[in-house]
Amino acid sequence: MEICAIVLAAGKGSRMKSKHHKGTHKVCGKEMINILIDKLRASNVSDINLVVGEHKEEIINVTKDRGVSYSTQEEQLGTGHAVLCSQEFLKDKKGSVLIFACDTPLFKKESIISLIKTHESEKNAITFVTSFFEDPLSYGRIIRKNGEVSLIREAKDCTPEELLIKEVNTSIYCIDIDFLLNGLKKINNSNAQNEFYLTDLIEIGNKENVKIGTIQVENKEVIGVDSRKQLYYANKLLREEILDFHMNNGVTILDCESTYIDVDVKIGMDTIIYPNVHICGKSIIGEECEILPNTKIVDTQIGNNTKIESSVIYESKVGENTSVGPFAYLRPNSIIGDRVKVGDFVEIKNATIGNETKISHLSYVGDASVGENCNLGCGIVTVNYDGKKKHKTIIGDKSFVGCNVNLVAPVVVGENSYIAAGTTVTEKVDSNSLAIGRCRQTNIKNWVKK
Predict the structure, then answer these.
(1) Sequence-ordered alpha helix ranges (H) in 144-226
(2) Strands 259-261 and 424-425
(3) What is the largest CA-CA distance in the chain?
(4) What does the DSSP 8-state code read for residue 230?
(5) What are the distances in angstroms from CA 223 to CA 42, 130, 172?
(6) With contact defined as beta carbons under 8 Å apart, do 413 and 406 qualify?
(7) What are the structural domains of the chain?
(8) DSSP label at residue 439
């Protein structure tokens, strides 16, 4: 059976108190709407339509690389009306359609698959997800007769007795497309909100004697994120799930309360994550690494057996058996080789550092290519900016750059060369050469007394 999906993302989300669409707010490093889209794709649902309205440009901008299509709901007249706005997407389609709200980032891929399988195996016209809450608040209540679903009543339309029901609708559906398109024509807005409710399809389905089924999931999977407090709670729950996943796959996490790992991060077994670590974006950490306290790693690949201590790394690549930090700063497009030492208070930007090279402390290496087995002393600076343009420094293999050296780019240092401490290099240094560029020391006796 063909399965497509509609994600409802047209609402204002006013309770979020934000200038941005609620679906674009991030949970564990990824926009809520993209978390849902990626889970749908992982469940083999590839044909996805987003119903947009408020802030539609922002939603389109954050989802434009996800291969989805868009429908527009100009007026927010309820969930039934929102789905009706996607009828061009549904036209000529057969099979069934999943319907989700955009603010359900905790719903699991396994539950999506279970929903589809139940819908198919039971040959239902409608299958939807329910859950139980001790305090159901504004969730629609599931009204059952003799154990079968009779209807879904929105909270504002419930009687006091119905409000005591703890089984709720989660607004997650799998519906036969033909039944959906026919049923939408029969929905009216005779309710407290004067809106067209998608939930009315349950009552319509019962009147037409079609099969209606449900699956139940844990309530934490279906918590909608409509406010900052719920956003915090969603982050907390998903973070716990992420940390459990990594620990179950052989990663040691010493303090879950102070460890933050984004949803797309990958970590190899036997790696140890120390307290107060942030690993963000699509970072990949190898096996048997140590990520020590006060480290932030963003969109970076780190090889096996590498140690990162109290450092910040953005959009870079670090090799195997390498150590970085403490207090190093690797800015975007830094490529660090194997068995390299990047020491304390070293900043690297848009530079390639060859294997077995050491930059031990207090140095800036920007817009540079440093060869293998080099030693860059304390306080060296690649002077890469002339006030208008950035220029490149090239240092050959097996070179030694002494302390407090300025390399004024563009400049080339040949392989196996020595740069004496205190030198300012402005011209090419040939291979196997010694470069000295400083004043000869002069001592004037009794100068202080005079």
Answers:
(1) 177-184, 200-207
(2) unpaired
(3) 111
(4) H
(5) 21, 12, 11
(6) no
(7) 3-221 (3.90.550.10), 250-435 (2.160.10.10)
(8) P
Residue that has been written with the tokens 């004697």 in this structure: 209
pLDDT tens, 45-93? Answer: 999 999 999 889 999 999 999 999 999 998 888 889 999 999 999 998 9
pLDDT in tens, 320-338: 999 999 999 999 999 999 9
Helix, strand or coil, per DSSP, at residue 382: strand
Q: How many helices (H) and strands (E) does the chain have?
A: 8, 41
Cα separation, 288 vs 321, in Å, equals: 10
Q: Which residue among 20, 278, 361, 391 is the active-site one? A: 361
Cis peptide before 136 (omega within 30 of 0): no
Is residue 119 among the annotated active site residues?
A: no
Q: Which of 416, 419, 415 is nearest to 402 (CA)?
A: 419
Are 328 and 342 in contact by the 8 Å Cβ rule? The answer is yes
- Note the pTM of the prediction, 2 decimals: 0.91
Q: With CA atoms as reference, report the closest residue to 302 among 353, 337, 252, 350.
A: 337
Number of other residues whose CB lies within 10 A of the CB of residue 60: 14
Strand partners, 101: 8
- Asked whether the predicted pLDDT for residue 192 surpasses 80, the reply is no
Dist CA 206 CA 186 (whole Å): 13
Nearest to 348 by CA among 303, 285, 395, 284: 395
Contact in structure between 196 and 187 (CB atoms under 8 Å): yes
CA dist list (Å): 251 to 260, 298, 312:
14, 19, 21
pLDDT band at 224 (very low <50, low <70, confident <90, very high): confident
Which H helix or E strand runs over 51? strand 48-52
Q: CB count, 10 Å around CB of 161?
A: 8
Look at the block and give the residue holding tokens 């209606």.
Answer: 212
Instruction: Say how far apart CA 393 and CA 367 lie, in whole Å.
Output: 7
Strand ranges for 286-392 from DSSP E: 290-291, 295-298, 301-302, 307-308, 312-314, 317-318, 323-324, 329-330, 335-336, 341-344, 347-349, 352-353, 358-361, 364-366, 368-370, 375-376, 381-383
